[in-house]
């Protein structure tokens, strides 16, 4: 991510700066870094007025004015404490009077458009801007990840995200989820929506037997561990006695992969997907702010539903993901 600034009341067109950032990229962080680097070149005891289109940066500046007086708990919940501490350190050292003024983004303001252009130029710089915080009085302790990345955001949330990624990585490395790992690499699964769906309770606010069955189905379907004959044969070899042929088509081994493509079951799955697409259209017609024709075409041409309306088309990977209760990106 890039950032940039220029001085509007100096005619020299070369008086500007831009750079790139790494780790925890966000538009707010870019605006904060632009403010910080602009203050570095300000003269001693000067009055500086900075125009920015980021209200978050302005609010963050005022909230961080008294970092040294707040409790450690509140301090660790503030994002970009190292940058804010540095900004206030520069202001105190150079005795700067700083005023931040909000301007409307994308309002055809020539000065703001110039700053956006510089930010785009800074994004492609190969060496990102880095800072050392050894002499910052208000920033005595910093938490580093892997002895490299300063955790400059809410520590609890950040550590929670790291743990979630570790959990997801361990989950993806399971042998039953090799195809899900491939789909994830292809960015076919919306994991945010999928996580919400996995935790959704459609049976009411309280846990009950029906909800427990739903959770069991979600776990087994998403991990390819439904009680198909090949799984039952592994668990109860004397009972099944290697008779694992599909009970419907009688021609293939009944596996978790086969049940979604069984020629006897596929017409029923196709019909269910048509009904699901029609229900989706009804909901979108009611709540979406789009033309009815656009909604109908959008739903029918989605990779998840398209095959259901074309008898000569096979089941798509997106449809298989939905059958296994993963939300694909084309649905979100």
From TrEMBL:
Domain named RNase H type-1: residues: 1-124
Cited InterPro entries: RNaseH-like_sf, RNaseH_domain, RNaseH_sf
Protein name: RNase H type-1 domain-containing protein
Gene Ontology molecular function terms on file: nucleic acid binding; RNA-DNA hybrid ribonuclease activity
Pfam families assigned: RNase_H
Source species, domain of life: Eukaryota
The organism's taxonomic lineage, starting at the top: Eukaryota, Fungi, Fungi incertae sedis, Mucoromycota, Glomeromycotina
SUPFAM superfamilies the UniProt entry points to: Ribonuclease H-like
Organism expressing this protein natively: Rhizophagus irregularis
